[in-house]
Structures are given as C-alpha cells and as structure tokens.
Write a structure and sequence with these properties.
Length: about 130
Amino acid sequence: MRTGLILLFLALMVLFYFSGNYMLAPILDTLHKEGIIPGTEKTWRLYAGFLKTVPGFIGLALTFLWGVLGDKLGRRRLLLVLGLAMGVSLILVSTVTSYIEIMAYLIIFWCGTPRDKPCDLCVYSGCCAE
C-alpha cells in the first residue's frame, strides 16, 4: 500500500512538472490574442519569454531555502507541500484573466518544482536517511 502511494505521488509530481513546463509554449499565442499577454505584435514575445524565465529564476533561487527547510521539517513533508503547491498553481492557471495573475501562478509552480530529481527518488525509496 505504501509503495503504491509513493509511486502515485512520484507519477503526479512528474505529470505536474511536465504539464507546467511544456504545455505553456503551445498556448502563448492564444494568451496574447485574448489580451492576457500584453505587448504589440513585435514585443509580446518578450513578455511571453518572461513567463518562463522569471518564475524559473525565482524558483531556482529559492532552492537554497527549500534545502534548509527540508533539513528542519523533513524532506518528505516539504516535497509533499511543494508538490501540492505545483498542482494547485496549475489548476489556478486555467482561471487567469491578467498577465500578473499568470506570472504569480507560474512563480508558485516553479517554487514548488524540485530541482534535485535523483534525490527525490532517493528520499521516497527510503535509501536516504533523514
């Protein structure tokens, strides 16, 4: 039972990661046409690029904080909370009406994205001591 839950959680983490990471590119043009991504025909791609880079850099910068919190609170608990943040932020992305909203939700997504995938697998398989 426990192994099944661990595998389910890992599968959901991978699904969330790839959903947020790779599904943004195909809808950028639609977001611009609906007025969510600002800019003229020449400049809107810059704003679209910010949707990928700014949240990624913020999430990467917070990786150090997650390392400290993981040591204090426990890696499993922290990964569960960050995984839930990823999932909730992806659900909220479907409700956006402005550029600021989508940027905020993507920042939450990238803050929840673990940067050390092999370590995640190691923690959940039980081969790392907490």
